[in-house]
TrEMBL record:
Organism: Bradyrhizobium betae
Name of this chain's protein: Branched-chain amino acid ABC transporter ATP-binding protein
Domain ABC transporter positions: 5-246
Alphabetized GO MF terms: ATP binding; ATP hydrolysis activity
Function (record text): Involved in beta-(1-->2)glucan export. Transmembrane domains (TMD) form a pore in the inner membrane and the ATP-binding domain (NBD) is responsible for energy generation.
Keywords: ATP-binding, Nucleotide-binding, Transport
Any GO CC annotation of this UniProt entry: plasma membrane
Family, per entry: Belongs to the ABC transporter superfamily.
Amino acid sequence: MTAALRTKQLRKSFGALQVAKDINFSLDQGARHALIGPNGAGKSTFVNLLSGTLKPTGGKVYIGDVDVTNASPASRVNRGLARTFQINSLFNQMTVTENVALAVSARLKSDGGLWRNPVRQPELQREVDRLLDMVDLTSVATKRISEISYGQRRLVEIALALALKPSVLLLDEPAAGLPKSSSERLLELLVRLPRETAILIIDHDMDIVFGFADTVTVMFQGGILVEGKSGEIKSNALVREVYLGNARHA
Ligand code: ADP
Ligand code: MG
């Protein structure tokens, strides 16, 4: 089976600081995978290299069979790679529905300009409803972004990424800044997301990491420290020492 996403000897330096050290990584189709490690391990840098917002110093990135190492972030999106963006990518004065509809119509543009075609508006509405249901936001569909909570905005971002029907979704700290009750709800809906999308999640919330992921990669000082099934990683003494030791002070 071709991996949904793969890197070969991926490397990144900022001056003398090596932040990604020859990373060979592979994400299976439909995988539920977590990337963990202490602050500064290089997790966000790695995700930025995958999504193309950073250029590597060396190595390769593949989406499926396609070498996208030199492809722009936008063309990687077209190849099926989505990630969540910062909150300021949402249109604050528009409603939740309108924000999601924009993303859906952007995907469907090549499909005949759905947004401009009144005949197909019901199809657009159905897709928006489906996405809002997926992230549990149906009850705030008609509210403006400026009127909903921080946690709900994070969920809108996930809906926008899912609107692209990606083969790979990168979630960099989706639970950051959420109260425990919201992160528990986030976990519930993450585990229900369709398996057509492989998901790579970075988070410091170990309940989310081990509740969600089947497999885990631990990064440390720009390299992969260990990889394996969630259960093995969870009980790995070295991982507990390195990771949880740091998390106590985070
Ligand atoms: P993590 O997400 O695991 O906390 P990061 O990928 O954000 O780690 O950072 C890894 C290391 O790279 C850190 O030491 C950080 O200070 C450094 N770093 C990240 N981005 C830059 C940059 N643009 N310029 C210089 N150093 C950077
Ligand atoms: Mg980070």
